[in-house]
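DATA SHEET
Item: assembly model
Revision: 1
Owner: S.N.
Input lines:
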Amino acid sequence: MVTLAVGTKKGAFILRDTGTDWDMTGPLHAGWQVTTFGRAPGGDHLLATASDWFGAAVHRSPDLEAWEQVVDGPAWPDGGDRRLQSVWTIARSGDTLWAGVAEAGLFRSDDDGASWHGVEAFNEHRTRGGWMPGAGGLAAHRVLIDPGDPDRMWVAVSAVGVFHTADGGDSWELRNSGVIRTASDDDDAEIGFCVHRIAHDPQNADRIWRQDHRGVYRTTDGGAHWEQIEEGLPSGFGFPIVRDNPSGALFVAPQESDERRMPVEGRFRVFRSTDDGDSWHVSGTGHPEEGFFGGVLRDAMDTDDEGGVYLGTTSGTVHVTRDGGDSWEILPHVLPRVLSVKVVDA
Amino acid sequence: MAEVTVRIPSLLAELADGRLEHSVEGATVGGALAALFERFPQLQVHVFDESGEVRRHVSCFHNGRHARSAEAHAVRLADGDTVTILQAVSGG
């Protein structure tokens, strides 16, 4: 049975599929933003909290019930100008954990998440001085790791672009050729790309799909070249993109524009591609269709690799498909604004 | 050393045995906070930011008087004093 962790503006909720219903527990960390979830190599669950008043932290739990804040979590050096505002993503490769944060940076832990340190080659990248935030802040929000060669990674930063390393993080290069920049100046054409989320094919990690501020893209060469793939989409703007790996189906949640940021004509619909992004179609049935103006944020959609796709909206609803996107249902719970959805057990 | 009470906001209480008030010993305001952070090390990052200052939207009071600055943190305490960490009323 699937267990979902849902992070919201006001705490986390755990939703468990009972076969006939969804049991809900929560809120955990009531009053805190819960920005993302992860899993430590030793099996502990991880989540990140943030607060406009009290900053950010990582917490761990063996059972999703008893939580303890990590004392030596991701942190910028004392006395510096950078501030840890939130942890946007936690990824794992083998015994190493990676955390992408705002103010944009990358941190790693090699001791099961007990202590974290900055990845200097990334955090002090030669282009750092030109990094500018998007509307959601200056954030490293997605880390993709090649399962076949964990030294190969891609990190997405808004509004800077996609970075790639082939040496485990010792050196980084930008990989955004073919993507339309969001930055209007020509001072540094190498950066200024507002990537919203990336997803890849774990069997061939050079195949990556990208929901960007400026459209939907794909690459087949690890990001050396990107092409726009929006045939059938009502809009190229949106935040999440996920891939159901067994079937290869892709899912996005288009919004009308970066200015309006709501479903096109008030019709909330997930779009699916079953041909690697060549074309897109409405994903099955069960969407609210009319009078629904919520959106889906970049970390608020996940898959279980068994045909299940799960998303949470800015209106607090959770939408589920268990058949690869042929039919959707909206769960009865109405939560605070959803920031993150993760399948923690499938 | 003075025996004082440190009050913390409810959002931070979950990191401190669920309690809003804590009795600590300290010679100064800063010393009382340090004693609290020694007992509950998870709290420090939520009260002070990377600059070493009290976070922008967090307030600190000593016996009801504003005590955010390093100078205020050096003020000596007497038995029965209260140090209060407060979530500032900011935003809408």
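QC remark: Chain B touches chain A at residues 10-12, 14-15, 41-42, 45-47, 49-52, 55, 57-58, 87-88, 90-91 (CB under 8 Å).
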